[in-house]
Amino acid sequence: MSPITTKFIQLKTAVPGPKSQEMLAKKEANVPRGPSNTTPAFVAKAEGALLTDIDGNTFIDFAGAIGSINAGHCPPAVVEALKAQLDQYIHTCFHVMMYEPYVQLAEKLNQITPGDHAKKTFFLNSGAEAVENAVKIARKYTGRKAIISFERGFHGRTLLAMSLTSKVRPYKYEFGPFAPDTYKMTYPYYYRSPYDASPEETDAEVLRRFEDFFLAEVAADNVAAIIMEPVQGEGGFVVPSKTFVKGVKAICEKYGILLIADEVQTGFGRTGKMFAMEHYDVVPDLITMSKSMGAGMPISAVTGRAEIMDAPNPGEIGGTYGGSPLGCIAALKVIEMMEQDGFLDHANKVGDTILKRFEKFKQQFAEVGDARGLGAMCAIELVKDKGSKEPNKELTAKIVQACYQNGLVVMAAGLYSNVIRVLSPLVISDEQLEEGLNVLESVLAELCTPNH
To answer: Coiled-coil region(s) at which residues (predicted)?
Structure first.
């Protein structure tokens, strides 16, 4: 690959360097194969949108801890708040002795999530836990058992969340049997709509299928909730239309089904609004949140209509570490950052810059079949040729590897593992973003066929 001028990327060794190689050997001896790793390096320091490994190599981060670092690595306000909290108390368990940050964060999320109805919020540790508990609450409130998720959806790796997830390898293979009363519906994928259907025709057909589904698979009056990502994350950054999301909400209202918005990856500014559901003018009944909520601290939340959230009796939901003081303090500071003037504007500017370059890549390279995104949640889809749209998983893996070898951390996604997704911290500077995109373009130029 032709060298490009770099200011922020500093590579002192090959990747992985000797110290990372030494740690990789220890990791292989002591850690099971199951937890996968995108980049074969070990971090020593992280700040903003930059990662420095133990060999002294500095990377631009386009992965953001799989969308957990919208506020950037080690935001100073969050770090200082955490240090102050450590001097007071680390953990008492909210179920034993309560603490103010838990209530303060609940109050804040009730205020900023979509809808002006009365809401309540409680906290857990991970996105999967939030999904599991949202389902528990929906079942308790409705007295129904069935849950509908969508093809290509990702909701976590625990049993119920894995059952709702729609990708066999690596998430579900040989891990069954799965949780009962979980069903999957079609989610529009406009780039791959059959028969070259228009987005409008695709939406109409997918929404029509619900009626057949309620006849063939599960009765509507047995369905407690439909859970959907406002933009599919692991599924390939597939963005639905407002018509589709509104149509799903209408079906829910028609049959008394709750709508759960899984905003674990889309929330907290990623799509240019605080929550992605705001793009569709749809108010869900329950919202699950995690990832960028705590700037890297493990915390998740379920927020919903007060009467729904009050359905479980005392002790029926919760957990020892749910809503830890450190997580709550971090989340309060993250929200404070994101509510400042200009934060979401910058997120939209980041997204505009990425998508314009991605559209250019689509014109430049024969294997870039599609460019899409919402706000700063952007992706390109790699194919073997634009006519057949056959997924190009092998090329995608080579691009990811070539990127980190040249100082850019990116991740793949998609049902076919043929999508390059960008989840860079939203605090990334214009110069860092440009440099990262230049590296990606240089890698594509090296590995792809130019369009003629």
So the answer is: none
